[in-house]
Amino acid sequence: MTQRQLPLAEAFIEGQRIPARDTFADLDPSTGRPCARVSRCGPAEIDRAVTAARTAFEKTWRRTTAATRAAACRAVAGTLRAHRRELAELECLDTGKPISQAYTDADVAARYFDFYAGSVEALHGRTLLDHPDLLAYTLQEPHGVCGHIIPWNYPMQITARTLAPALAAGNTCVLKPAEDAPLTPLRIAELATEAGLPAGVLNAVPGTGPEAGAALAAHPGLDHLAFTGSRRTGRSVMTAAARGIVPVTLELGGKSPHLVFPDHDPAATVPRIVTSVIEHAGQNCSAGTRVLVHEGVHAQVSTALAEAFTGLRIGPGAEDPDLGPLISARQRGTVLDHIDAGRKAARLVVGGGVPDVAAGGFFVEPTLFDDVPPDAAIAQEEIFGPVLCVTPFGDAAEAVALADATTYGLSAGVWTRDIGLAHAVARALRVSQVFVNTYSAAGGVELPFGGYRQSGFGREKGFAALLEYTRVKAVAIQVDPL
Ligand code: NAI
Ligand code: MG
User: Which ligand is nearest to the CA of 28?
Assistant: First the structure.
């Protein structure tokens, strides 16, 4: 295929594709070759999209009933299901993830729209203040125009996760997908509009972070900004939004631990820990990247993890391996640098290199380190690759202290049959999601999710996200007694 024949990912504003002025290449990570051209949008397109969203908010969307918006969200869910195969294949091509994971992502994306269709009809204000002369109540109002800047790891799921509650709550949206994986977000914007969202309610503008992303974050016409991505970019986005006092939601990744106690069930624990760190080759904000294991079972767990890691299949996403490539040569370089630093600090047990599969793809071997000192960079920093670090502990207090000993706080897995211990540990951990004897890294549409500490703030998923996309107004009325 020549470059001119590649599909063109263009901005979608006010119900129409906007012809590209300039483009850049989007790569297939499984081969390293271009799979699409992407419109290189900037401040002009962002401004046009924000203006379209403002008009749609004032003229149409804010005047709709919850039932109307629920029906629209249900229609979007239906259309995503009808295009499940197309979306999954596009996601697999653009991100390199195993095709079965891409199908799951399409299903979860549809589920978000269904969930917020249902929950927005249960959203209501309250009656306040028992007072003879006053009637007071609250209204749950949409912010207005919401900006959404999303990353490349779960483009379909994160598009749906961030847009569905915002749209259901009555906001209009401008989405900026990541430069490395814009194909499904742009397609979803188009499909959602075909399914019945009025033009301008959902707009999507591709481009680079410094051009399109920065223009959206700094746009004075926004009423809310949601960002998912790196801590560094999160900081700059929050700073830009601060100028206009625009409220932000930040989801900035993590260094999520598994806490494995002596009475865990090895048959359940080990496979789920492995899945939690190799799903999408570890490029997952809630990947379970640290195993904190009681010293009494350390040797057994390490041996079982090493066996499992050795047996993993790696290859192009379309072949549905256990893990596919990383998103880019840059991401692979970052992960290999972390691994090199890890070799000096800890014991490399499995992997550590570049596997001999599919020339040109951005692959890294699943990599297991043992006896990792808690202060080593590989135990502290988000690697975003298939790298697992094992560290032993002596008792539960030490396990919790180690779990909390990074600057992040997103998810955690607790592996024990002692129900009292499980509850005590769940309560002590400074994270937003605790899984006991399971680890649901994908999906979890109904469970509130977000950061403690530097993993960010604000909540996505669940009913909590619907509240996040509204603000509360109190109305008090003098009612003179009869
Ligand atoms: P990034 O945070 O730079 O990119 C995320 C989004 O922000 C993209 O849409 C990008 O275009 C946009 N962006 C970049 N610079 C911007 C700016 N100045 N203003 C506004 N928007 C901007 O993430 P990147 O560089 O792709 O990945 C680097 C690391 O970030 C990864 O290794 C991983 O550790 C972390 N990350 C975390 C994610 C999460 O789910 N929390 C997702 C992706 C990356
Ligand atoms: Mg791509």
Answer: 2
Task: Check whether 315 has a pLDDT greater than 80.
Answer: yes
For residue 386, the enclosing domain spans: 256-445
Interhelix angle 99-120/66-82, nearest 10 degrees:
160
CA distance 290 to 399: 11
Within a domain: 439 = yes
Q: Which residues, listed in sequence order, are joined to residue 450 by a DSSP beta bridge? A: 459
Residue 56 is assigned to a structural domain of this protein: yes
Tokens of 191: 């499909």
251 is catalytic: yes
Among 222, 233, 336, 433, the mutation site with the greatest number of ligand 1 atoms within 8 A of its Cβ is 233
The 10s digit of each residue's pLDDT in 102-121 is: 999 999 999 999 999 999 99
**360 and 317 within one domain:** yes
List pLDDT tens digits, range 118-129: 999 999 999 998
Residue 452: inside a domain: no
Q: 446 φ, ψ to 5°?
A: -85, -10
Does 438 share its domain with 469?
no
Record the tokens describing residue 307, joined without a space: 């066996």
Catalytic residue among 35, 73, 173, 285: 285
Q: Are residues 247 and 260 in the same domain?
A: no
Residue 451 CA to residue 432 CA, distance in Å, equals 6
CA of 304 relative to ligand 2 center, distance in Å: 34
Kindly state the average pLDDT of the residues 130-138: 94
**How many CB atoms are located within 10 Å of the residue 132 CB?**
7
Cα–Cα distance, 290 to 256 (Å, whole number): 6
Mean pLDDT, the chain, rounded, equals 97
Same domain, 177 and 47: yes
